[in-house]
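ok so i was messing around last nite and threw this chain in just to see what happens. nothing serious, just curious
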Amino acid sequence: MQPSNICLRITALATALSLPALAFAQSDDAKDLDNVVVTATRTAITADTALAAVEVIDRKDIEQSAARSLPELLRGRAGITLVNQGGLGKLSTLFLRGTESDHTLFLVDGVRVGNATSGLASLQDIPLEQLERIEIVRGPRSSLYGADAIGGVIQLFTRRGSGDAGVRGRGQARVGSQGLLEASAGVDLRGARGGVGVDLAHQSSDGINACSGFYDPATWQGAGCFIVPGTHPDRDGYRNNSATLRADYAPNEAWQFDARALRAAGHNDYDGDYVDNSDIVQQVVGGSVRWKASEAAQLKLSVGRNTDTSDNHVGSSFANRFDTTRDSASLQGDFSVATGHALTAGFDWLRDRADVQDPWTPFPPVSRGNRAAFAQYQGKLNAHDLQASLRRDDNDQFGGKTTGGIAWGYGFGEGWRVTASHATAFKAPSFNELYYPYFGNPMLRPESARSSELSLRHDNGGWQWQLNAYRNDIDDLIVYDTAIFAANNIESARIRGVELTASGRLGAWDVRGQLGTLDARNLSTGGNHGKRLPRRPQRSARIDLDRDLGDLGFGISGIAEGARWDDVANTLRVGGYGTVDARASWRFAAGWTLQASLVNAFDRRYETTAYYNQPGREWSLGLRWQPR
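result:
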């Protein structure tokens, strides 16, 4: 689809994209916009008052990190385990607080994204240069968002223009090892009542040999990606071209119109026998209209569509095509009923569709609708903060499901705060689990969860730290059942964990870090009872150190993860690892910055999943232009 067609789509489909202008649960004091989050409660609150574990990554953090991809940026952060199958652009799955890789809800500008057949979001294909901000909420949020939010919610916000009237431009170029090439440019035109903007980006890499797996055609035995020996000892490249478009208009103080679109199209090579390369498309379009009736009430209507398409080939021969869409709409009202007390209520609508073309495993076109009503109360009583939410989902496939959540916070002493919460959540079966030939089971029930958390936080103005302890019990996990030769609800799990996060200044250095421990166990009956859930390390740590010396900047990041099992029977072990990344920047002229980075500086060999290689030492050199 050409950019002009995207413009046409924007006018018809859209999403809740702009931050709400009124934070009903907050005081009238001015707040730093960088500290405002909307994902935790679907309303604007400050991160330090959220009754959930929240992390915000803004555009400054993204540029300072020198990360080349969204998975690279998120790797090692509190509660997050990333599993990557061979470097840049290769399949990357995220485990949040030990839950399954499809137990995290992803939003782009308020629009639900993810492949309806697999249930996964294609994180590796969302261009980092198109993102302005990321909000990570750890812990279940089904009582506000419905299905998929057992582990938490991660919302990505695309680029936004400056609030000042006029024309603003920006550009960036980078080269690096493995044939890395990047280029991006954007412009915003703003007037007194609104503006428009566009960003274009390109990224390509020759890649590495993604897989070290094997396949013996004489015995039909293999591991990893089932490589026939000698056929795939090659580099597996990646290419991604992307664009974002945006427009907003506020005719007066009461009305706000907003529309956005993101499209990323690319090509991915990987190792395998059945398919070995794909043409991919990720597209999110949508918009919203907000009516501020008074200082105490506002309504917002949002609609959007996510398209996830993959054309898969063996060499140049067509193998199959997966085309899924998610259409969504939401009507939300926010009401300030008294000082310190706010109500939020609304309706959500969602429809998933899948069209699979596969000559070997015919998959009928399928669709599924979901309707939901939700309500939330937020209140402040002296030093106590309260939040309660309730949601009812009605799904075409599995019927009704009710989830709820309650949270309490108490501030005491000088900067101390304790919070406690309990919530229920669920995950709807994916289309693959329901209908895929020789695997699907249309009688599946949703996976369900119960989670409790206790947190202690301290902020003395210079250092902030937070200790979170949580437990999540998950029932009716969906796996392949050999008794019926199909997917079935037969497993359960118990996940317990502790997170310690801290940030502050140590001399002239900005310091951020996290330590985590995780005990994720299979509680299903049978031989795997008590085994650890695969691909979850027991221990993880990350530390980031950054320092500015006038026009010069330096930074170091250290990431470590313990060993993990790569199978449910705990027989295939993947060793732990530690890596160090380094970066430097030089602001040599007004608006111009030269940046260099070294990833995996000590050339550590490691894997995040068995038989899939990770790159060794990699370098990059970039030039960024962004007038202030």
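not much to say yet. Confidence is low (pLDDT under 50) at residues 1-31.
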